Structure formats: structure tokens, C-alpha cells
Amino acid sequence: MNIERRTLITGATGFIGHCLARRLVETGAEVWAGVFPGEPPERVEGLPEEVRRIPLDVRDGESVDRAVARCKPEVVFHLAAVGVTDPGVTPFAALAVNVVGTIHLLESLQKQAIRRIVLVGTCYEYGAREAPEGLDPFNFYAASKVAAWAFARAYWRAFCLPVVVARPFQVYGPDQPPHTLVPSAIHAALAGEDFPMTPGEQKRDFIYVEDVVEGLLTAATTPSIQGQSLDLGTGQVHSVRRVVERIWEITGARGRILPGALAYRPGEVMPLAADADRTARL
Question: For a surface tag, which of 46, 67, 140, 253 has the fewest beta carbons within 10 Å of its beta carbon?
Fold first, then answer.
């Protein structure tokens, strides 16, 4: 999947953003990375040398305008967000970055000859699916992503901005934050440490980060899907406990798995599976 166009990535120094930047360079794209001014230097240095860095703080509309005017993107991947791995993010921080930041970007892109905007959401927007609307966020991060989706769709309706929303499910792979499930379990297993965890009954749709990136590229290049929302997952679920047990089996770990040592997060959702068939049809 090739995108030989001028491309802007917000959140390029994050877990998925790093992988996406590398893949876009491979396709021959001219890649610009929007870099938050306070980003740790090692995260910026980890980007491919071919990627052009540009200061970008989505909370500041003028910063967004300057970055967009400078790189003049044809394709945009919007990954910049707070709360991805922090369930305690405040509603004010989530609103400022995930909602207002998205609006700043959409406003700025109206002035450009933009071909596609891929807005990255989250599977947690679905929550327990107990609301009749089909979206049922259970924390402030997920709620802010629902709001960002609503604004993106409104901009598509009102101004024909070519927005596509992609919702990754349980992403894992190299360079993932070390405190998240899979890397923290691997670390404990290799170190011979005990691994305290929740009862682990949550069922998640695990998808490798490189497969997510291919899904994002597909969302950026498939014609006639503007305004649509796509799930990026396999459609198959595995319990969190079983995933940890499998890591123990593969590594021959000597430490103990301690299910139930940690409580579930408030409002924890048990099953979350992507509608992979619908995504394939689109």
C-alpha cells in the first residue's frame, strides 16, 4: 500500500505513530511529523531520519495553522491524543487535546487541498454498547474520542472534508509503552517476577501494530469511504488472562501470575471485538 504524497502525522512520536512514520517512508511519501514542543528528545530522535519534524501543539490553533501552512499536506493521520494509556486523564485535558485539538486541525485543513484525513479513534468508544446509539464510552478518554468523531463527521457533512475514522482495538508490538499489558507481562516473565493483574476475564481483540498501520494506509487510500468509521481488529477475542498465560508458556517464566491481585478499573468493559467483516466490505 503506497502513499507517494505529502503526509502529516500528528502524534508521530507515539507507539503507533513511530511505526506509521517508518512505513510511510518506505512507501515513498514525504513525511512530516508534528512534534509537541515538550516531547522527550529520545522519542523525537527515534523517528526515521527522512521524516521532517515540525513543532505542533494541537491545543494551540495558531500552532496548528503554522504547521499545516508550512507542510501543506495532502494526507493527514491524526493520532495526537492524551489518555491512551492513562485511564485517570482528566476531562479537561481530554477535552483540550482530543476534542479542541481535533477541531483546530479540521479548521486548518479546510484551507488546504486535502485528499484524506484519517482520524484515529479507539475501540473504547463502543464501551459496553448498552446505549442505543451504539457508542457507550466508559471513561473520559473514550468520551473525548466519541466527541472528536462527532465533530469530524460534522465537518464532513458541512464542508465535505474527506475524513475517515479508524478505531484500533487492542494494539501490541515493539516500542509499546512498558507499563501496558503485553510488554509488562513479558518483562515480568523474563525477569522471573510475579505478575499481579486483574482477574483477567476481559476479552480483547488483539492486533499487531504493523497490521494497524496497514489498516491506516488502507483508510487513507481507499476511494469513496469519506465519512465512514472503520474498526481495525481481527474480529476474534482472547481473554487477558489467557494472553498472560501464553506469554508464561512461551518464555518458561518462573514467576507467578497473580490474577485478582488488582481490581478492575471502574466501568471496565468485558468483551470488545472489532467488526472486521464490515471493515473488509468497505
Answer: 46
